[in-house]
Every structure is written in C-alpha cells, then in structure tokens.
Amino acid sequence: MTRLGGTRLVTLGLLAAALVGLWQALQLDSWGFDGPGPGFFPQLMAGLCVALAVFVFVLPGRAGETEGGDTEEAESSPETNCSFAIYVLALGVLAAGAMYAGFTVTTLAVTVLIMRFAEQRSWLASMGYGVACAAAGLICFGWLLRVDLPEGPIERQFYMLVR
Known about the structure:
This protein is mainly α.
C-alpha cells in the first residue's frame, strides 16, 4: 500500500470517528437561556474534526516528498527523538501545572517549552504565543464561557476584575 493510500485510509477512520462524535454531540443542548450549553464545545470540536478529515481526504498532500521530488522513507532522527521527549515532558508539566500553578502559568510554560525547545522558535515568538494562548483561554473559557479552569493567583486576580 502506498503512503498516499494509507493516508486516505487512516483519514477515513478518523472521519468515521468524528462523525460518530458529532452525531453524539448533536444530541446535547448547544445553547441555553444562560449561554452555551453542554453540547456547544463538543459540537464545535466534532464539526471541526469532520471538516479537517474531509479536507485531508480530498487533498492528502504528498507525504515524504522532498524538494527534488524524491520520496524519502520516514526514519527516526536524533532531532525527532528529542522533540518527542520534549512533548512528553510538556504533558508532565501540563498535569503538574494544572494542579499547582493555575491555568495561565501552566499554559505559558507548556507553550514555551514546546515552541522554544521542540519546534526551535525564538524566545520572543515562544513567549508571545504563550501569552496569547493563555490570554485567549482565560478570556474565552474562564470569563466568557465560565469554564472552571485551574486557579492560581493570576486567575483569581483576573476574575476579581471581570466578575
């Protein structure tokens, strides 16, 4: 089986799972009198997964193709292994940070860890993206949707200002 055929086969499996998720999510209320209901986020995410799976199925790209048009086998390099280890470490930081540091500090730490060390971005880009992710999450989920995020001193101060 070619890589392209394998990509489409896997995408069909993911599309099927996303459609089942969307079907189940549509049975929940998406909006109530006091704002978003329990089905709003699952419906949004399942719909996004369905759209992305359809997109990848229609335009799967050319996996493994280099600039010269040659295909190369996927192989594990030291850089790939190091990046994978950093992602695993980031999951540990996410779990520990959610318990002790609060949402904002944890989001910033995980984002900087991944972007700076796994993805080799600059410190400025990593910090800027981390702050943007933390602010967007805190405003959209913590304040507007009133999701119970892990609280630390930053979250408590923010909620005192906006609630």
